[in-house]
Records
---
Amino acid sequence: MAPKRHSSRSQTFSSRAESETLPALSSYLLSLVSIKQSNLCVSADVHTTSALLRLAEEVGDSICVLKTHVDIIDDFSDRTIKGLQEIAKRKCFLIFEDRKFGDIGNTVQSQYTRGPLRIATWAHLTNAHLFPGPALIPALHSAATSTLISLNQSVSTEISTGTPRSSIDGNPFDDPELSPLSPSTTRTPHPPLLPKPSSPTAATSTTRPLTTADIDMSHRRGSTVTATTTISQTYEPSPPNPASLSRTLSSSSDPALDRAAALAELGPPPHARGLLLLAQMSSDGNMLDSAYTDACVAAARENRDFVLGFVAQEDLNRDKGDEWVVFTPGVGLPADNREARDGLGQRWRGPREVVRDEGADVVIVGRGALGAKDRRAEAERYRLEAWRGYEERVERRRCQ
């Protein structure tokens, strides 16, 4: 007997986003998907910063998430990330770094937050294998939290100078360690520091060592420097209630204007990070069996505030309280609509099929879009197919 399908299969993305138990980033993503009518993630497997930014510009309007592999960018730098963040903000998509963490907790924390990549500072989403053990999840969560706190603090320093009262401060040069002229220093007096007129030797000689006694300090008084450092902390707002977004989407007769208004109301992503567990793979002969997948689901349930969902080949929402977002790779549009392979172990299925029949929420497309002559048009073609699969899935479940 086939297992009963989870209720989330028949729910719209916008209704799922309304759940009060969802992490803010999950709610934001589902709202974004609903507004843009895009459950497409393009995998940016390119090798230069310019190629990455060009791809993001071309496909950004048609996607909800851009998946990166920044460790294969030959000229990776801060410019890479700043450019990508600017496009993501303008085109309204999240950034998913496909790092596939898989090591002990201490190591993955450093890999996530340090080195030249510093993934936690810019990627909304990342992913991990569970084979090192479930302790990897709270380790990454802790690292993400620390990074966000650090990013969220702004430090400003105000420096002011003033002349102290001599009765309190005295002459700062009374301390020989603070004197600009030690007894052995030989130099021509600086013009503002004039020799005392009552000292004829000082007025005619510039070769003997000068001391502070030779300098008229009567017109100079000690000064103090005060530095005041202020640390302030701000937080980005959580996404608005999806119900208000629904009203925005139905406020005019022009869908494009509705979407623009709803995206403006949705605003920027929340100040949060999320993890996807790699529960299943699309390559032939992979070692991620059903027991491993079950372990991923169990670990995710223990970390609902950080794990948003899975990279998987099917819907992994099983229990009543499950609210996972499922990303499915291995998606393509072969000419004959059959499963395709690349000869290197990868196999592809159509986006409409994996969303409608397998319960995927977001489809991940790589070479199918990257290799197109018109990548903008090809991304839109994939978006339409994946969205059609979603609409058919929801309608099918409603009719049953």
Note: Residues 237 and 270 are 6 Å apart (CA to CA).
---
Amino acid sequence: MAEVTATNGNETVIMCFYDQHRFACGDWKWGYFRQHCNREYRTGETCGMKLIMQTVPVHQKCKLCDKIDTKQRRRSAEEDRISRWKREGGKFRASIDRSYEIIKSLEREIYELRNERMRKLQIV
């Protein structure tokens, strides 16, 4: 375990370290707290400077990407239903209209989730 130090006036401090979880989609999140620094003396408190102790690969997508994938599958299923109903004739007009409304709603939700993911990436 390597110590990273910084000079703060006359004192040298060891920064606080955390694990980093990196998802298959490229997103990441902070993991467990690993090492305390000399700057913060209160029990359970940290200095606010988060540095990475180790990166832990996670072989699945993050929650946001899972939600996006789920909504895209649902959108694809609605499109399949619409094409099937159109092949069977015009007797399912109300169902087709309802599916178009669902698709619009899903597209809006997918757009919002993608924007949220981009905002998270830009914060860092």
Note: The longest strand covers residues 28-35.
